[in-house]
Amino acid sequence: MAESRKIGAFAPFEWMLALRYLRAKRQESFISVISGFSLVGIALGVATLIIVMSVMNGFRHELLKSILGLNGHVTVLSSGGLLPDYDALTQRMRAVPGVTRAAPVVDGEVMASQNGVNQGAVVRGLRTADLQNLTTVSKTLSSGALAGFGNGDEVIIGAGLAQRMGIHAGGSITLIAPKGNVTPFGTTPRIKTYRVAGVFRIGMTQYDTGFIFMPLEEAQLFFNSEGGVSEVEVMVTDPDNDLAMLPGLSQAAGRGTRLVPWQQTNSSFFEALQVERNVMFLILTLIILVAALNIVSGLIMLVKDKSGDIAILRTMGASRGAVMRVFLIAGASIGVIGTLLGFAIGVVFCANIESIRQGLSRLTGTTLFDPTIYFLSKMPAEMDTGEVTAVVVMALTLTFLATLYPSWRAAKLDPVEALRYG
User: Fold this and answer.
1) SS in 3 state form for 229-257?
2) For residue 177, what are the β-bridge partners?
3) What whole-number distance in Å separates Cα of residue 54 and Cα of residue 345?
4) How far apart are CA 125 and CA 146, in angstroms?
5) Is the sign of the CA dihedral 79, 83, 86, 88 positive or negative?
6) 6, pLDDT greater than 80
């Protein structure tokens, strides 16, 4: 025993004893059951935390990609009314370093009608070249969709809207604008039927079911906006750094305009996502904490059960440090194995989350992750290396801390008292 103390911090006999204690005999099976539940609890806690955080990261990333892919990172608006001289304004915005795209836009709300189905929609007027540069939409269109888009009597609609109204490319759709022609009897709605040149699908239900693209000149006529546009949309190289570009963009825009970054437009939405993400992290951390407390109770029972063995080891020359290390190894082994198992489960689950969702939907006969509620057509999961590392380190730290008190208690055990009452 004296020689084993010289081998190092964790001698072979310490590993042997720790692993033997984890493989409890029949009369000690209850302790083994507690250890097993602790291991499973840690694995489920780590896996659940990785999966939930990855899904929320993916959800935020997909929403951000869809929102910023369709809308500008910075929107230039007039201080009042329409933006005049928008072509010169657009050229000035494009000349600002870091700007990748600037396009004049006419927005308006309409009632879309076809085949007895009526639904509100947003019409966005864009030039053909600007729509083609909007790759989020243009890459989902058929090859000939943009060819006739500039004619004025053709529009491009979302796949969800087309499905609801039973419209295909080449069909027609009737749009009704609330503000139309001015007559002696007042303003009458403007009604016009357009040919559907193409159908786009970006994967976000809100846009696929409620957006219609129209040529800019036609939108100006349809919404009585001749000579001006609603806004100029600006896209930059780094959307997360667009606030730093606001002074330069504001100077290029000139007087009579105001700039609205995407953070301001969608602030409440993304702040709610961040709060929910933080709360979920704290709640799910409690699962790992409970599993760590199970390690404490299991080790305390193991120490009490092995008090006679500890006393014999002490009388044979084992130091208090050696005894403490035996139980540290036993508890830490549960934590390390559980954490690694949870990590593996979380990674595999995240990599196949959409297939798992579809399988569970078929098995239960319900729609899990309904796109009409969550805006996305499929469940996303994006693992962040830093977050996964933080979860693993946190789990290992909690389980290590959970082994300290039982191990210290084993090391402080008086061998004389243990042999007398053991």
Assistant:
1) ECEEEEEECCHHHHHHHHHHHHHHHCCCE
2) 190
3) 13
4) 14
5) negative
6) no
Measured CA to CA, the distance from residue 343 to residue 43 in angstroms comes to: 7
pTM check: above 0.85:
no
- State the DSSP string of 286-347: HHHHHHHHHHHHHHHHHHHHTHHHHHHHHHTT--HHHHHHHHHHHHHHHHHHHHHHHHHHHH
Residue with more model confidence, 191 or 15 = 191
* Both structure tokens of 283: 């709640």
pLDDT given at position 5: 45
Is the pLDDT assigned to residue 300 strictly greater than 90?
Answer: no
Classified as helix, coil or strand, 19 is: helix
Structure confidence by residue, pLDDT tens digits, 309-364? 777 777 777 777 777 888 888 888 888 888 999 999 999 988 888 888 888 778 87
- Mean per-residue pLDDT of the chain: 81
DSSP secondary structure of 159-173: HHHHHHHT--TT-EE
In the 3-class helix/strand/coil scheme, how is 92-104 assigned residue by residue?
Answer: HHHCCCCEEEEEE
Element (H, E) at 54: helix 29-70
Q: Tell me the two tokens of residue 306.
A: 């092995």
Distance CA 311, CA 120 (A): 80
Token digits of residue 106: 């006419």
Phi then psi dihedrals of residue 377, to 5 deg:
-80, -20
Helices 320-351 and 307-315: angle between axes, nearest 10 degrees: 130
CA dist 399 and 346 (Å) reads: 19
Q: What are phi and psi of 257, to 5 degrees?
A: -130, 160
Assigned token pair, 59: 């959800």
